[in-house]
Every structure is written in C-alpha cells, then in structure tokens.
Specification:
Number of helices: 5
Helix content: 10-25%
Number of strands: 14
Strand content: 5-15%
Distance between the termini: 195 Å
Radius of gyration: 73 Å
Order of helices and strands: HHEEEEEEEEEEEEEEHHH
Largest sheet: 2 strands, antiparallel
Structural class: little secondary structure
Amino acid sequence: MEGQALVTSLGAWSRGRGRARARRSVSGWIAALALLVAGGCASGEGDTTDGSFTSITSPMTNPTNPVTNATTTVGTTAGMQTGGTGGETAGTTERPDESTGHAMTDPVETTGDPGPTCGDGEVEGDEVCDDGVNDGAYGGCTPGCLGFAASCGDGELNGPEVCDDGVNDGAYDGCNPDCLDFGPGCGDGQINGDETCDDGVNDGSYDGCNPDCTVGPYCGDGVQNGPEGCDDGNDVDNDACSNACASASCGDNVVQPGEDCEGGDVGGESCATQGFEGGALACNNATCQFDTSACYQCGDGVVTNPEACDGNNLNGETCQSQGFVGGALACANDCASFNTSSCTTCGNNNIDPGETCDGSNLNGASCVSAGFLGGTLLCNPDCGGYNTAQCNHGDCCQQGGAGSCSNPGILSCTCALDSFCCNNSWDSICVNVAINSCGAQCP
C-alpha cells in the first residue's frame, strides 16, 4: 500500500545518509511517519473512499545538519486513520479489513529518537568530530561538531606543544610524534643526521663545534688559531711544528731539526757512535746538544769514568797506593787498569821475583860468600844486590906480630911486598900495604 511505499522510500533515503547513522535513524523516521499517518486518520483527513491522497507536513530537524520544512506526501487509501498529536504516542500501522475494506491499524510503540545529535559522542551524519563535549578544548572537537579543535599535528604550535610541524615523525630537524619535544637536530648534544660535531653549544669555539654542527677550529686543521703557536696540518711530530701545534724549540721534548737531543732522549745515540770508546752519553737540556763529558777515549790523557788512568795520567796513583813497597807504576793500554810490572815489594823481607835480597832476608848470602873473611852483609834498599861495606878481611888492619893477618891471600900479598911484615912485627906500614895494594878492608 502507499503508506508502506512511503516507509520504504524513507528507509532508503536514510541508508543513503551513511551506515553509521542509518541504524539509529531508520527506526526514528518510521516512528515519525507512523505518528503523522495516525494523526491524519484520526482527524478524518485520510479517510476517503475515492482513493485520493492526503499531504502531511512534518518538520524534521538535526542539530548539526538541520533539515527544516521537509514535507512528506503520503498517499492514503480508504480507511487510513492517524493517532493523536503531541509527545510520544503510539503510532499505528495499517492493514486492510477484509470485511469492510477499511484500513485497520495495529499499535506500534515508538522511541521518539530525534536522530543524529551533536554532543551524543558519536560521529554521525555530517559531523566531523563529536567527543560529547565539543567545547573547542585542545585535542577535542569544536562546537557544532563540524571540525577538530587545536591538536598535535595541525601544524600550529598550541596547547602544551613544544613543536608541531604537521608531520611529527621524529625526523631530523622535525618534531616528535607527541609534539612535546623537538626531533633530533643540531644543538641537541648528539651527533646525528649529517652532523660531524654537536656539543650542545656549537659556538665555533676552539676544539668545539660550529653552529652548523661541523667541527670547529682545532690543532691539525692547518690554520693557526686559538692557543696554537703554529699549525702545519700534518701529524709529523719532529718537524718545525709539533703535533701539539707548538713551534720547534729546545725544551719541548721533541727532537727538532738542529737539536741533538731533548730531555733524556738522545735518539738512540751513544758515546761509541760519537767516536768514543765508551761511557754514558747525555743531553745538555739547556742547549739540546749531546753531553759527552761522561764518554771516554783512552790515550787522550784525560781520565774519564770508567777509565782508571790515561797515558801518563795515573790519576794520582802510585805503586805504594796499589799495595807495593816501591817501584814505577804505569797505565795499562786499555786505560781500564794499572801496569804494576815495575812496582816492587822490597822491604817486606820476602824475596819476590826480581829481588836479590829483601831486608834481613839475604837469601843465604854473607860476607864470607861475598869473598870476605867476615863482617856483616847487608841488602841494598832496592833489594837488587848486597851491601858489603861492613864485611872485612879479618884483622889485617890490626898491628901485631909477624904475619898478623888472618886472610891468607892478603897476608901473602903483603909479605911479598914487604918481607918485614912477615919476618918482624905487623905494623902500620904493613896495614897500609894490605889496604892499598892487596885489597884489605878494615872492619
């Protein structure tokens, strides 16, 4: 029947408004239609016998997308009746009376749902945003449900936001997804992106970072700056500019051109490499030149440690200081020791090699073994021979009777020269003959 056609038409229109809205809206429109039809029938406007149609005008509104003065034309057949007006009423549905041909109505309970409403917390119809409050607060919806309020991602800085570039994907020089902080960028104290330096200050100071997060001036960049005395941009430490960007100078602990050494560093050199036989090579820290005072060269006449002597320079030593009694001390050819071959131990009463006698040790000799009749034999001071000054030939020097000489050889010699000495008394003339002509020695 025509009322049913109208209901079907309205249901289709409602579905076209969207699936989310349709489920709530169709039942509301059907109930409203039923109320309108019921009202018309009750007032007699729809009860005709010639099959004509009656127009029923029903206002329908939507707070967010109001549709006003919408007129629904409902065709009715004989016997259509409507219910009363005002408030929630029991709507009616028509069915034909088989006995009379008039339309019969069955009561249908309706809810009176006015349809989609801004503020019900659901996005329906033409609504863009509906949070149930819609007061335009940050992160919420605007009044009228027609737009979003300010929020993270709208590309504008508002609310608690620190950064909002509309993308907020945490990319370099961008914003974090929560808009509460900046993404990685130059100045955050971390090296990221294309940065080569980021100390969080980036003021271009020496040994710091430049404002564009590149490396600031530093020793080795080839440009003299900051506290540098030079900067040759290389890593050669023993040239005119050290790796500490200091100009070469004595005392910088770097052996530079023109310097032999620095501090305790003699560059692997030694006394031997400097032409000496040995010793300890040192560095003169005031001039950065080698100090060879502890080096030695045997034969230069200078006694240098570890030399014991050098040539005729015995460094004050003698045979006696070397434990000998006497002799001539000499220096060994290597200057490392003394030559004591000419030193002696004469005077220790021991006959050592080279000695004839030593002190009272006459090695068995006496005045008699020396060809004298008697007396006291002595050892020379150098232990190289005997002293016979106290040896004698008996009493040939004494005056006495004829033949008064105990040495047969001297007696015979004297008697041959002066027979009186042997035939008469031995007098002073005999003594003189014995001494002067026959070799007699007086004790």
